[in-house]
Design a protein that fits this description.
2 copies of one chain form a homodimer. With 107 residues, chain A is an alpha+beta fold. Chain A contains 5 helices and 3 strands; from the N terminus they run ααβααββα. Chain A has one domain: Arc Repressor Mutant, subunit A (Orthogonal Bundle). The N and C termini of chain A lie far apart (32 Å). Chains A and B meet through helix 1 and helix 5 of A and helix 1 and helix 5 of B. The structure holds a DNA duplex (30 and 30 nucleotides).
DNA sequence: GGTTCATATGATATGTAATTCATATAAAAG
DNA sequence: CTTTTATATGAATTACATATCATATGAACC
């Protein structure tokens, strides 16, 4: 493996499952089970996604007894999401059919 | 199509070809042919990549006679690349075997 | 108008990462 | 120490974006 950090950076985030997770975590910490329920995803699907997000430093976790609480790594995720929001607003507001809705869950 | 702008944002960038193009364009504008030569990519490969970058507002273009000159859209790309550099530095310096090299072309 | 150079478009095949399913670990509780 | 709850791991299939190849458009020059 060489210096393909940029590719990994984007590839990891280019996924409905992980983005829906990030969207929920942007409102506060959550556990694997909670995410799995709210998104109607298999537990293992959420777990796989969280682990790859964690490996790249997008989320951090803390064990609480049996459960594992995940949250966004604020230093990267907050400015990143703001940057994307601004870009999306500017370039794609017109192309987006759902007015005022910044986010909609994706299968 | 619904509001999947976030997914598109990352999906478009999660690609060696487009990232190598962005890397070159970060040093200045270039044409399809120049990029194709420098990267040893098929012309159509570069063209496809540039068009999808353009559709999402990552690059802008200007026709110059027969050639088409592409450049990065500075408002989004400059802060984005800086943000990623910082994150990659912080979280992955240790995992990267090639010291001091920020970028290496990828097949 | 015909030819050449530069880029774009479209359809199919290919390659890679996510999903799924089965199972393993880990922690608490009885 | 067995059971239950919560999460993680691994292997195989599936799904989807990219690469390729063939062709089309577009601009300049004769």
């Amino acid at each position: 493996m060489i210096c393909n950090s940029y590719k990994s950076f984007f590839k990891i985030l280019a996924d409905d499952c992980k983005l829906n997770i990030i969207n929920i975590l942007s409102k506060g910490p959550s556990t694997v089970g909670e995410l799995s329920q709210r998104l109607h995803y298999e537990q293992s699907r959420v777990s796989h996604a969280l682990i790859s997000l964690k490996e790249f430093g997008f989320v951090i976790n803390k064990r609480n007894g049996k459960t594992q609480e995940y949250q966004l790594e604020p230093k990267i995720m907050i400015p990143l999401l703001r940057l994307i929001d601004e870009h999306v607003d500017k370039y794609h507001r017109s192309k987006c059919t759902c007015k005022g809705v910044r986010w909609r869950e994706m299968k």
